[in-house]
Write a structure and sequence with these properties.
By secondary structure, the chain is an all-alpha fold. The chain has one domain. The protein is built from 20 helices and no strands. Helix 3 crosses helix 6. The longest helix is centred in the middle third of the chain and has 38 residues.
């Protein structure tokens, strides 16, 4: 079977739960923005930014390490058991620390009087981290149906309890209750993953290969540093934004949380590309490792990049040129002031996706330290730009920082990859596709048609531009042509 078609198929199989799940959770944005004012939605956004940090730390790169050693070692059960017990130990230690320090952490995070937030989101992240290795095992064993069933069940529980809590239980006079209800719904959802992989927990034998554990931890450490730094690039702006505006921007805490809520809601509109990236990652990582011995692997990786760049730029145009439609996912017009950040963040996510696709070079060549170097450099630059410019430019500084950092990481990864693990990417097509997408965006955005809140003429013209881009891609890539 054509390997690219196989990757597309695996992306569909393993990515479908992620895509549908993210889209269904995406549909919670209208619910949240309807029942929660921006300042309370800002609190939710900050908490989930911290969840993203912790999931990287508490899984400790064991998903990637598991895939690598599962393909290298004959004793696959030992690889699973060792990685699983290691993650369980890390999370038990972390949660014990949280139980003794949650009040102090709440004060530092300006959540004073709400230490329950700290306990709840810590429980969520620990459960998700512990379930990550059994879920990875399902992917490695090609148990797509079970993987999807668990994933969909968790998503369903989350959505149902969000709807029930916010619509029927929350007091509109106390919107801060919504934050608590959202966390409880997520906790119940996370427990579904434990229930779905209960067999792995019940059959787990507590004997660990310490040598293998050390080897896997050493392999994962640069990935953890890189992943942690990567999350700084992706989510720390939401933490810095509130604290910087409150401490140095002259805003009250409520005003700072309001700005954060507006920025975070509009950030969601740029996440359609991120949803695709997550789905692609589920299939791509095991696919790349499985084809690492293919004699034509580098040519294959280069060809995949062509399709990938075309796909993410198509999504960039789809959302950016139809933002007048996508904005209605945000039910409260008070959030719409932040729509200007959407194209910037969409393009940033395009560069992030390309960087991720390139990152296979340092994973396959066992030089994960370079991933850490790139991510740490990006994290430093993210913090620097945000801290310097947020007091003056507010959340626009955060959006531009994201774009600048992801673009520089993409370039740095390419240059290092060509030195240590050369893959012949088609740069002419990259610049052609990028230039064409940006030209279409700017040309059609300059066509100013204001005939009310929605203009059919603007809609038709903008999507005509997207169609032109799509036809150019099909003409050059010939995805439907028969190949031997």
């Amino acid at each position: 079977m054509n390997p690219i078609r196989k990757l597309v198929g695996q992306t569909a199989i393993y990515g479908l739960p992620t895509i549908v799940g993210r889209l269904l959770n995406y549909l919670l944005v209208p619910l949240y923005t309807y029942y929660l004012p921006p300042e309370n939605y800002g609190v939710v956004s900050e908490i989930y930014a911290l969840v993203a940090f912790l999931i990287v730390l508490l899984t400790f790169g064991m998903e990637t390490a598991f895939f690598r050693y599962y393909n290298l070692k004959e004793d696959k059960e030992s690889v699973f058991r060792t990685s699983f017990i290691t993650v369980i130990g890390i999370n038990i230690l972390f949660f014990l620390i949280i139980l003794f320090t949650n009040r102090q952490i709440a004060e530092v995070m300006l959540f004073e009087g709400h230490s329950e937030y700290i306990i709840l989101f810590s429980a969520i992240v620990c459960i998700d981290a512990v379930a990550a290795v059994p879920m990875a095992k399902l992917r490695s064993e090609n148990k797509a149906m079970r993987f999807s069933a668990i994933h969909f069940s968790a998503i369903g529980v989350n959505i149902l309890f969000n709807l029930f809590f916010l619509i029927y239980l929350m007091d509109p006079a106390r919107p801060e209750e919504g934050v608590l209800f959202i966390l409880i719904a997520n906790l119940l959802s996370s427990l579904v993953k434990i229930a779905g992989t209960a067999k792995d927990f019940l059959n787990l034998r507590l004997n660990i290969d310490l040598g293998l554990s050390k080897e896997m931890l050493l392999y994962s450490l640069p990935l953890v540093i890189g992943g942690f730094a990567g999350i700084i690039n992706e989510t720390l702006d939401r933490v810095i934004l509130k604290h910087t505006l409150f401490n140095r921007g002259g805003l009250t805490l409520t005003e700072a949380e309001w700005e954060l809520g507006v920025y975070s809601a509009n950030y969601k509109l740029a996440m359609l590309i991120t949803i695709f990236l997550q789905a692609y990652r589920y299939a791509a990582e095991p696919f790349f490792f499985a084809n690492s011995s293919n004699v034509d692997r580098r040519k294959l990786y280069g060809k995949i990049m062509n399709y990938f760049v075309a796909a993410v730029l198509f999504m960039f145009l789809l959302v950016a040129l139809n933002v007048d439609i996508f904005k209605y996912f945000i039910r409260n017009e008070a959030y719409w002031d932040g729509l200007t950040v959407v194209p910037i963040l969409l393009l940033a996510n395009v560069f992030l996706g390309i960087y991720f696709n390139q990152s296979i070079w340092y994973k396959l060549s066992h030089q994960t330290k370079f991933g850490a170097y790139i991510a740490v450099g990006g994290a430093f630059l993210t913090i620097l730009i945000n801290v310097i410019f947020i007091p003056t430019f507010g959340y626009m500084a955060s959006a531009w920082a994201t774009l600048i950092v992801y673009a520089l990481q993409m370039v740095a990864s390419y240059l290092l990859g060509q030195k240590y693990y050369p893959i012949r990417y088609n740069l002419r097509k990259f610049f052609l596709y990028l230039g064409l997408a940006l030209t279409i965006f700017f040309v059609f955005k300059m066509i100013d048609i204001d005939s009310g809140q929605f203009s059919w003429l603007k809609f038709v013209l903008h999507n005509l531009g997207i169609t032109v881009f799509l036809f150019v891609i099909i003409a050059l890539e010939k995805p439907f042509a028969k190949r031997n």
